[in-house]
Give the backbone structure.
Amino acid sequence: MASHDLQEPLRAVAGFCSLLKNKYEGTLDERGRKYVDFAVDGAHRMQKLLLGLLEYSRVNTRPVQRLSADCNQLLSEAVENLRVSVEDSGAVVAHDPLPTIHADPTQIVQLLQNLVSNAIKYCYQDPPRIHVAARRDAHDWTFSVSDNGIGINPDHCERVFVIFQRLHTREAYDGTGIGLAICKRIVERHHGRIWVESAPGEGSTFFFTIPA
Amino acid sequence: MSPANQLDRPLEILLAEDSPTDAELTQEALATCGIPHRVHVVADGTRVLDFLLRKPPYRDAPRPDLIFLDLKMPRKDGCDVLHELNAYDNLKTIPVIVLTTSVAATDVREVYARHANTYVTKPLDFGEFVEAMHKIVEYWFTIATLPS
């Protein structure tokens, strides 16, 4: 699937709708302008879905590298990639000393980035506080990413990892329903597990294991 | 505008783009840049070379001041064009802006390795795209000095 081929028609829809709005604003009535806005918005959302799906398919198809990866460094990379939303939300991302694991560094950055980004997105009025930790047992490292956000009803804790499953309306929290599905694929490709423990209003803690 | 680029003619822009809708959108974006210009559109890499070498049907083609080059084109893609341009001393001095939907790091590296001047990923949002095109034109025609 070539991203280019899929994006070209979308660019046409979004671009010409915008032109229609800019150039013929006087001719369109309020309802007409609203329809054009809906069309542009639809094209933009399709674009996000498309990029998400391409990312998901890349995680599925690209060979998993096994390199020595310092998770302290990978977490800072993930947080750096989220700098704008960290700054906008006033989020504080703290962590315990994290281990060095054998894993695909690009994928682990993406995994941590998606989890931290979700923690920022599903926050309360207070600035998000996120804590990342890891503990070792006989076979695995278990990582945890906890937040002080809105939490998840335990009944829905499995559903959140299924692609396109969303617990909220677009108006409440914008999103594509792909981020956690990508996390699940990344962890599975590293022969680990991912789950979440949470209650509404109590924050959430996402756990994942990576074989030690 | 700096005196170096105060031309007594419109700027000549060559746009290599296989999608007619993208070509139209790019021309629309350029139309409001405030600098007199002419856009010549060719739909594949072979025609880029034909245009620059003034092969038929481009016998009367002007020498472009700037080339906007799409990467994914039929027959000869953008990277091939860059490679071939480097063989012509008189053509390789024309600035080339790669204008693409690709965000792949390998494409970015490849393009700069072949001496393109700029790599731009087209924003989907038309407003952002127009702004990007205006900034590019402003940079190349009012800040940078071009070879005469």
Remarks:
- Chain A has a mean pLDDT of 90.
- The two ends of chain A are 35 Å apart (CA to CA).
- Chain A touches chain B at residues 2-4, 7-12, 14-16, 18-19, 40, 43-44, 47 (CB under 8 Å).
